[in-house]
Amino acid sequence: xxxxxSVKAREILDSRGNPTIEVEVVLADGTAGVAxxxxxxxxxxxxxxxxRDGDKSRYRGLGVLKAIEHINTEIALAIVGMSAxxxxxxxxxxxxxxxxxxxxxxxxxxxxxxxxxxxxxxASFRGVPLYRYLGAEGxxxxxxxxxxxxxGGKHALGSTDFQEFMIMPVGAANFNKALQISSEVYxxxxxxxxxxxxxxxxxxxxxxxxxxxxxxDALELILAAIDMAGYKAGQDLFIALDPAASTFYQGGxxxxxxxxxxxSQEGVTLGSTEMIDYYVKLVSDYPVISIxxxxxxxxxxxxxxxxxxxxxxxxxxxxxxxxxxxxxLEKGIAQKASNSILIxxxxxxxxxxxxxxxxxxxxxxxxxxxxxxxxxxxxxxxxDLAVASNAGLIKAGAPCRSERLAKYNRLLRIEExxxxxAQYPGKRALYNLERMK
Length: 437
Fold this sequence. Notes:
By secondary structure, the protein is α/β, with parallel strands linked by helices. It is built from 13 helices and 14 strands. 37% of the residues lie in helices and 17% in strands. The chain has an 8-stranded mixed barrel, surrounded by 6 helices. The protein has a 3-stranded antiparallel sheet with strand order 1-2-3. Strand 2 and strand 3 form a beta hairpin. It is globular and about 60 Å long. 56% of the residues are buried.
């Protein structure tokens, strides 16, 4: 009865008004699972390939009709008749069907939409929520949210060099309270910006995007907002950064010592070791507890230096560095390149591969952060995935824009469902840091 009867894809629009894929999988008993796929703006070059049509007469070339055709024909033919409860077997079949190392033939977006829709159909068939279906009885850890309340870089051109300034409500007693604190700080930030005559327009992920002369100005504004909301920075909330350094790195050959980090808003050009010194100073001056993509995606030697210097004090997160890819993760573990990994299912293409990467990183003693993309849909899979995998951390944007809030609201419902078994880790989410012990 759990056998797949039909697989159908359609083109829908994401939060930026660009086309993306929605997939519907229907089982023999009529049970269905529907999933949609997000899309990144700041994409690392090691991500699996998102297949776009390239037909300039439609959606500026961004249509996804080719990927949809792959799902409706080749993929459907390959998995119809299989049991939706055999997720690993279905994902393996999808990977083999594509046959390329980076999902370029059928498209990682086609594979992921199918993979997630199968999982949702399986959960519905079993009559359990997705987090329980994927994580069994042990799935009860709500994640600490990392909310991008001030946007820069590629998410808000003309603002700061760094792409994201996030708050982490580690002092909250539960997820519900964490979201309340975060929302209050967000609204305080609006007031702080207004009082200073700065723009309160928001970027792709719902964070404010004022024009600021430096990254430190952004940190000062957030500290003022935390204070105005009646909370204590470094206690109730910490700050997390995503510089997205690959976007301001100007490479020497093979990302060697000749490469430079160009902070154009600040009018500063730094070598790798100077960039590390810049972070060391930031961490000593501000309650920064996490830095994601602080260095470029090929600057491996510098990543190891950064981790040797700051890895016991703060979370150092690889996103572009790893692209949710097991081979790159293994290299990072071997080189002690970071102590944390960002997890984006659409960087790799199937649910099984995503879960395997999370598990491996956790075995290595790293933290794992389940993440949205800047181009999102209302799909809430990442909320369930965070709970299912006991990740302890999630990035889903500011408490603004419904495609972001859908994830946080889903977590509120999960916490309510779990009742007294629900756990919120707070500072324990950063279990690998000396400073949180």
